[in-house]
Amino acid sequence: MKMIMAIVQDKDSNKVSSQLAKAQVQATRFNSAGSFLRSGNTTFMIGIEDERVEEVIEIIHQASRSRKQFMTPPLNMDSIMDSGSSFPIEVEVGGGTVFVLPIDSFRHF
Amino acid sequence: MKMIMAIVQDKDSNKVSSQLAKAQVQATRFNSAGSFLRSGNTTFMIGIEDERVEEVIEIIHQASRSRKQFMTPPLNMDSIMDSGSSFPIEVEVGGGTVFVLPIDSFRHF
Amino acid sequence: MKMIMAIVQDKDSNKVSSQLAKAQVQATRFNSAGSFLRSGNTTFMIGIEDERVEEVIEIIHQASRSRKQFMTPPLNMDSIMDSGSSFPIEVEVGGGTVFVLPIDSFRHF
Ligand code: NI
Ligand code: NI
Ligand code: NI
């Protein structure tokens, strides 16, 4: 038995939840935040049999992998004055961090 | 020294807190949620001497054990039309999950 | 690699965050609460190389150490009737608890 602690971006958390549910993996969700930018993220705590650790990490990886996205930056007064328009830019979103911890014992009642 | 992570239903969390306090066991509480039904629950994080692990698990067990309860389901329009009344049904509430993790070291300042 | 779980008072949490950031230490923050007085605190979860464990604990220690502070207790009706004034008293604030846990593996994607 291992404990997996996984931190993913809020925008990926529902996908992570539903993919874990589809694989019948019980998880506990916590609202959390990064300490640098204080932006919200979601932490999942999962107790799982040793044989399924890699499978669970791969589920989280697929549901939260970092990828490029086009995003239109919000207009501000300067740019309106300047050009009157805003162009989509490519940004990187997603990504996650996973820790696997040993467990001494587990009880469900 | 061990770390106990215990997830219990919100309705049992105050009883768990007060029983831990009565036993002089320090705990940290987190609002959390199940990932299937997204229903709220409470996670307790407890650092405890090896000799007291079983005692703490038993406290949490007694305060959150699953049990049967009678509950009156909420009326909906169909059932009002149908029978004009709602009967109590037996449901299972409570239950918890406990993980015991090894700790390398501990510091209090 | 180790996992550090650190619980500090809310009033020290921004200092802890910024000192960790200054040392380039990634951390995840959680709102939490003590189970005795239910007062809010903040829990930091940090994955860190073995060689930096002591450094990180010392950062948290310096940013949250318990110290004496003078505080003016809030006036209540009795004391107004009684003396008409309120005197600063010395109270202890701060302090933290740190757990260091072993990690089997770590992944970032
Ligand atoms: Ni039982
Ligand atoms: Ni000190
Ligand atoms: Ni990848």
TrEMBL record, chains A, B, C:
It comes from the Bacteria. It holds the Pfam family CdAMP_rec. Keywords: Receptor. InterPro entries: CdAMP_rec (IPR010375), N-reg_PII-like_a/b (IPR011322), N-reg_PII/ATP_PRibTrfase_C (IPR015867). This is Cyclic-di-AMP receptor. It comes from Periweissella beninensis.
